[in-house]
């Protein structure tokens, strides 16, 4: 465990969080899953991790090699799933293949039946309707969902907190106009805008992030604004004013810390919500570009292929596991920040 | 004497936070007899409220009872079921809290809240309950009781709300009334009325009263017996006469002796004028309609003028709502005002925000709530040093540290404690930290907004002495805002008496105390000093 210098209050919060077994275990499990999936390329890939061929090492993950380098005939990049290439390499050396020898977009051409094929020894959770390994897609899909969710949460919280802080601290007409703007803004139909936009541009990760951020930053404004409306009347805020501190310093040093408790409590739930947004967009087909590993797309496939229950089921189980963990963590955080809670 | 109705034996109460256990009350023995008033006296943190709350088991979940029994009506209040304790609460034992503002539910009408406690413990018809509620509002001396039944709490004044609380506590004719500092949050003149009311009702109904207070003046007036508590233990129990005339314990003596006395250090009449306020007005607009047209104003401060000489203290006296704090805030430009505020040669109302910010180091403020005015997330040295960064940005960290250490020594704080956080200090120390924070900027002029009113008497005394010492040393000019005339008398050279936003009387302190001219001033002085032999 790294030594982090926590203040006394934060140490107590951490202890309260640890006392909540369910939240604590969930945090570890979620962290573990996320950590593992960060290295998905090393776990699920159609390229070997390391090749020893003819007394020298090759690392196909970093560099692309042509088939001719291993004594093949074509100048094209080597296809390490091809039995011919495998044979060539094994004759003069060896190779370490990842645990799951498929990447998220690798099509398994050597299926025994038509795709989607049921779980087997090679494809642990079967393949989808294009013959891609479900397990690999889940790994990559989990990663992209969480990364998307985290980025969206951080960005939207930052914007939301700033907007709420300014409105709450200054009050008056800034507050009134800000609130009316938010009311109008949040009633815009995000989904239709996304559909329209996706016919103009090809949405990728950043496009999606930008658009969902544009319409999703309002979630924390209310809480932060309320905390600021309360906090700006604290006597130590007046004391800071009397000392001659600038508004920015008062906001950051004296009022914002009060709002952080409420904000941090909300964050695991916002993360869950962000992931849901991405998943549902993917499910509807307005999400990440075709071919990207996405849980929503896998769900859509499950719906289209009722005869292949492993598609829907595995996506469903992963999603519900992820959301349950997030909710449990959220509960733990909420309790940890509640000083009246006895543990 | 009378029969005993409540016996507390060997009671200990602790609070459990995680693995940490804090002792709040230790081995307390207490007896309450029928029809008597027992005053439970002590400073904040002495465990008096915790003791009283244990009787009804009103303490939070984290409270544990390592030892003791509370015997009431042949039952031990600590061990009986929740069902049974609920039957006692509000029925056999009534309770009044300190804050009349927050102990009534703002969403329900007075009548409904009164009837709620009737219905909880008795089966009566709605109309009978109405009648009873009305009767009780009359009994607690509310004017226009029929109207009050359908009023909301915010439509009542503090004193009226406390009367409603008393009616609620007594409506089921309990055997015991627990009054937890019922007058602390009220103005002096209202305090006296409430105390008389409680006395009268006791004579009528013969209930026993457990009266918790830190104010010895009240004890003198109301108590049959006095119990003094300190650090969770009972120090002494005696009759008030014996206790006040011959206190057996040193702590009791300290409590009695720490009444503020004496006068301010003499000041030179020829000193130059430092602060001059002319025609100061603070009006808050009342806006109506969609277009928010200003239809009228709340005149919090209405056209007041006064001057303060350098090194002098001006006391602003008045009850809550008289505009005294608003005046103090306006002078420091912490709220908007009209009129002239002249500090040295600067007219503050003609200056913009940045110019005012530059001037802030010359004028500082000390607030009423010492804990509330310190950011709990900052260490003491951060709090004290904060203003330095703004006004003396050229200082090196070492110089800054030196300044902080010097000022901490000046106000009587141990510089070794500068890395600690406010919650590790007591109320008096909080106020010293606040004073240090203001003093480090080397101000000429300070507004003291009731700096001692939330402190215990013995601590008040120390803080006042400190303020006097600093005034002498740095030739500070004070505006001292207070409702406590005893404190004002011991600190101020000149006095301004305010009522409803205007000055009713102003002048030299000695003159006002010896020959008050206005009726209101006379009334204030009479209530404040009535316990003292004239």
Computed over alpha carbons, the radius of gyration of chain A is 25 Å
Stretches of chain A where pLDDT falls below 50 for ≥5 residues?
Answer: none
Share of residues in strands of chain A: under 5%
Quaternary status: heterodimer
Structural class of chain B: alpha/beta
- How would the global form of chain A be characterised? elongated
SSE string of chain A, helices as H and strands as E: HHHEEHEHHHHHHHHH
End-to-end C-alpha gap of chain B: 33 Å
Q: Largest inter-chain interface?
A: A-B, 25 and 31 residues
Secondary structure class of chain A reads: mainly alpha
Give the averaged pLDDT of chain A, no decimals: 86
Q: What's the tally of helices of chain A?
A: 13
Key attributes of the depicted protein:
heterodimer, A: 343 residues, mainly alpha, three-stranded antiparallel β-sheet, 63% helix, elongated, B: 534 residues, alpha/beta, six-stranded mixed β-sheet, 19 helices, globular
Task: Give an overview of the whole structure.
The complex is a heterodimer of chains A (343) and B (534). With 343 residues, chain A is mainly alpha-helical. Chain A contains 13 helices and three strands. In chain A, strands 2-1-3 form a three-stranded antiparallel β-sheet. The model of chain A has no long low-confidence stretch (mean pLDDT 86). Helix content of chain B is 36%, strand content 27%. In chain B, strand 7, helix 7 and strand 8 form a beta-alpha-beta unit. Chain B is globular and about 70 Å long. The two termini of chain B are 33 Å apart. The model of chain B has no long low-confidence stretch (mean pLDDT 85).
């Amino acid at each position: 465990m790294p030594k982090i210098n926590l203040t006394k209050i934060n140490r107590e919060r951490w202890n309260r969080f640890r006392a909540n077994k369910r939240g604590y275990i969930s945090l570890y499990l979620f962290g573990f899953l996320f950590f593992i999936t960060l290295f998905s390329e090393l776990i699920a890939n159609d390229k070997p991790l390391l090749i020893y061929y003819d007394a020298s090492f090759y690392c196909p993950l970093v560099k692309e090699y042509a088939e001719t380098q291993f004594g093949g005939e074509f100048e094209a990049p080597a296809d390490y799933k091809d039995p011919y290439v495998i044979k060539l390499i094994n004759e003069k050396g060896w190779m370490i293949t990842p645990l799951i020898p498929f990447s998220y977009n690798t099509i398994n051409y050597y299926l025994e039946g038509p795709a989607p094929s049921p779980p087997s020894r090679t494809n642990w959770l079967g393949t989808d309707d294009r013959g891609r390994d479900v397990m690999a897609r889940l790994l990559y899909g989990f990663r992209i969902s969480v990364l998307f969710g985290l980025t969206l949460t951080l960005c939207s919280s930052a914007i939301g907190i700033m907007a709420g802080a300014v409105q709450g601290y200054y009050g008056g007409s800034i507050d009134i106009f800000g609130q009316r703007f938010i009311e109008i803004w949040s009633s815009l139909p995000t989904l239709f805008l996304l559909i329209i936009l996706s016919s103009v541009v090809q949405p990728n990760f950043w496009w999606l992030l930008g658009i969902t951020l544009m319409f999703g930053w309002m979630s924390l404004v209310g809480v932060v604004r309320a905390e600021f409306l309360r906090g700006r009347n604290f006597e130590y805020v007046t004391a800071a004013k009397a000392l001659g501190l600038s508004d920015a310093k008062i906001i950051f040093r004296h009022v914002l810390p009060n709002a952080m408790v409420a904000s941090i409590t909300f964050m695991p739930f916002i993360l869950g919500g962000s992931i849901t947004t991405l998943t549902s967009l993917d499910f509807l087909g307005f999400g990440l570009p075709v071919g990207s590993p996405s849980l929503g797309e896998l769900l859509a496939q499950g719906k289209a292929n009722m005869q292949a229950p492993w598609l829907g089921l595995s996506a469903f189980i992963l999603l519900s596991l992820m959301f349950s963990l997030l909710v449990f963590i959220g509960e733990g955080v909420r309790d940890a920040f509640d000083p009246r809670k006895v543990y | 004497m009378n029969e005993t109705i409540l016996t507390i034996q060997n009671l200990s109460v602790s609070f459990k936070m995680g693995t940490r256990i804090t002792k709040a009350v230790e081995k307390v023995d207490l007896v309450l007899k029928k029809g008597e008033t027992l005053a439970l006296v002590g400073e904040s943190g002495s465990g008096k409220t915790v003791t009283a709350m244990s009787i009804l088991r009103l303490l939070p979940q984290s409270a544990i009872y390592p030892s003791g029994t509370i015997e009431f009506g042949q039952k031990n209040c600590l061990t009986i079921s929740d069902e049974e304790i609920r039957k006692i609460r509000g029925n056999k034992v009534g309770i009044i809290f300190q804050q009349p503002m927050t102990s009534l539910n703002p969403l329900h009408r007075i009548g409904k809240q009164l009837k709620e406690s009737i219905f909880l413990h008795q089966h009566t018809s709605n109309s009978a309950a109405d009648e009873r509620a009305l009767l009780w509002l009359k009994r607690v001396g509310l004017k226009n009781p029929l109207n009050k039944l359908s009023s909301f709490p915010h439509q009542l004044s503090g004193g009226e709300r406390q009367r409603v609380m008393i009616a609620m506590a007594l409506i089921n004719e309990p055997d015991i009334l627990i009054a937890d500092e019922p007058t602390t949050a009220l103005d002096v003149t209202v305090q006296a009325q409430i105390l008389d009311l409680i006395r009268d009702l006791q004579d009528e109904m013969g209930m026993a009263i457990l009266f918790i207070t830190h104010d010895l003046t009240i004890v003198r007036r109301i108590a049959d017996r006095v119990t003094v508590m300190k650090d969770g233990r009972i120090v002494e129990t005696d009759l008030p006469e014996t206790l006040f005339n011959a206190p057996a314990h040193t702590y009791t003596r300290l409590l009695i002796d720490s009444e503020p006395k004496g006068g301010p250090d003499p000041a030179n009449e020829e000193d130059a004028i430092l602060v001059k306020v002319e025609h100061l007005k603070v009006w808050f607009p009342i806006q109506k309609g969609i277009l928010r047209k200003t239809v009228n104003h709340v005149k919090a401060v209405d056209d007041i003028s006064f001057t303060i000489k350098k090194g002098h203290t001006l006391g602003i006296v008045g009850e809550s709502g008289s505009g005294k704090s608003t005046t103090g805030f306006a002078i420091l430009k912490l709220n908007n005002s009209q009129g002239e505020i002249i500090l040295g040669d600067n007219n503050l109302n003609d200056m913009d925000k940045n110019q005012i910010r530059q001037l802030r180091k010359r004028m500082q403020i000390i607030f009423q709530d010492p804990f509330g005015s310190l950011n709990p997330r900052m260490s003491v040295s951060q709090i004290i040093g904060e203003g330095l960064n703004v006004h003396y940005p050229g200082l090196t960290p070492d110089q800054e540290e030196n300044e902080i250490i010097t000022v901490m020594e000046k106000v009587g704080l141990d510089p070794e404690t500068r890395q600690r956080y406010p919650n590790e200090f007591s109320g008096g120390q909080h106020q010293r930290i606040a004073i240090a924070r203001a003093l480090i900027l080397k101000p000429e002029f300070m507004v003291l907004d009731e700096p001692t009113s939330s402190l215990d008497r013995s601590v008040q005394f120390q803080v006042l002495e400190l303020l006097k010492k600093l005034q002498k040393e740095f030739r500070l000019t004070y505006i001292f805002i207070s409702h406590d005339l005893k404190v004002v008398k011991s600190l101020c050279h000149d006095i301004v008496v305010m009522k409803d936003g205007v000055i009713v009387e102003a002048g030299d302190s000695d003159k006002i105390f010896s020959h008050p001219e206005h009726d209101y001033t006379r009334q204030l002085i009479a209530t404040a000093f009535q316990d003292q032999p004239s």
